[in-house]
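Page 47, continued from p. 46.
Same chain as before, 210 aa.
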Amino acid sequence: MPEALPAAIPQHQIRASHTDTTVTVYQAYAPRLGLPAARDGRFPDAWKRERMTWIKPSLLWMMYRCGWAAKADQETVLAVEITRAGFDGAVREACLSHYDPDVHPDHAAWKQALRTSPVRVQWDPERDLHLDALPYRSLQLGLSGPASRAYADEWTVSIRDVTPLAREIHALLRSGETAAARALLPVEIPYPSGRAETGRDDSVIAGQMG
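Result:
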């Protein structure tokens, strides 16, 4: 069963580990890409800068996606620290990955936004320690073209391999040591930005994300 939840979490809200100048996002890669990235603190030349890449501020959503670093080509989990300026700029340019009549005036307007924006927003159910779905959402940002290149070559401050952490948390869960597993999770709190509280729940932003 999903864990008990605080009652006041909005359905759409960016939560992340962050400092005054950086935000941490997560990705999972095959070792041939992930290990050099963590070793050098930058994405290698083999990392395709023209294709869309999805970044996730939630470690547990990343664990759900990569199966605790067990899925093929997702065995290396990276914590990528990027500039808040880059992250905020991406959010400002973002377009929903799907049509929403409560956000877009019509389907054609959404398609036009999709064509002109290099950033996609997708909201997926957040996950608890057991990777069960929670009744509020976790942000994913899809970066393509200039946004993808900027992410790899301008915004990235550091890259850490957190695969050992993921496996330690998973091992504790399998042993029934839930409190010890929870204690190892990074602290992810609401992101303090003018566009951090997103979606129709609080109407902070003007129609690009739902």
